[in-house]
Design goal:
Elements: H1 2-26, H2 31-52, H3 56-65, H4 67-89, H5 94-101, H6 104-110, E1 116-119, E2 122-125, H7 130-147, H8 156-184, H9 190-200, H10 202-215, H11 221-248, H12 253-261, H13 266-277, H14 285-320
Helix pairs in contact: 1-5, 1-11, 1-12, 1-13, 2-4, 2-9, 2-10, 2-11, 3-9, 4-8, 4-9, 5-7, 5-8, 5-13, 6-7, 6-8, 6-12, 7-12, 7-14, 12-14
Length: about 325
Amino acid sequence: MREILLGVLASLFFAVTFILNRSMEISGGSWLWSSSLRYFFMVPFLIIIVYYRKGISTTFKELKTAPAPWLVWSFVGFVLFYAPLTFAAAYGPGWLISGMWQFTIVAGVILAPLFTLKVGNRIIKQKIPLVSLYISFVILIGIILIQIPNTQTISLNMILLGILPVLVAAFAYPLGNRKMMGHLEGRLDTFQRVLGMTIASMPAWILLSIYAIFTVGLPSAGQVVQSLIVAVSSGVIATILFFMATDRVRDHQGKLAAVEATQSTEIIFVIIGEMFLLHVPLPAPIALAGLGIIILGMFLHSYYTKILNTRVQTLKSKNNT
């Protein structure tokens, strides 16, 4: 249950991404800077946190020992996650991007067979947790209901440039996150892992920013400030909270799916934020019904996770006796 609460809190800070990315696009800012500036700003904050926790040397030692997994899965989990999201913000409204992003709930469950679990000397291939998948589909129904009032405004161009990039991001984020957890096997804590992945993704962000200089010029002061806010809120606070929650349940696909499902609450925070900051009107009744279904799905995930925890504790008690 504690991991679920961490995930919901992370989604609150993640919501800032969708609101401010749309705000930056409306004001003429380029997605190239919206994506790269966030990770540039994350580095000093993360270094300070990890240094204070006396974990700098261990982090860099892990990076030097096996740079290839870091470069590959950081690119997948950070670059293929955030660059498509900011790109999509240029072609679709915030409600569409944040709504489609929730597909990551189902994507995370579907990815389960790509991972293994070591039990003693045995390597067991993970299976798709069907109950978690069914519950995730309940949440997906709620997300679809939220989008229905706006379907008349969706064009083919918006589908290709606003929806498909988000689907790429929806698979890339849980895949990169889980693969790095599997590679590290608990050798680094959450703060160190986020710092390491951010540093490993720097080559891509540097290339992207160089391309931005020659194509769109330097970012405006407003975009720099908003990117800094996104970096602190979504990049540092939300990412650390979410990775902390997934770290705690990394060996159980059902619980991991429940934590990843907490991202569905982002759309609730985005709608509220857009109403107050971007003056977006209150959603239609069918969209509000969708919000209710999302909340119901979250309760189902929490309840199922509680049942799993009870079973685990019962098995441990029997083994001890």
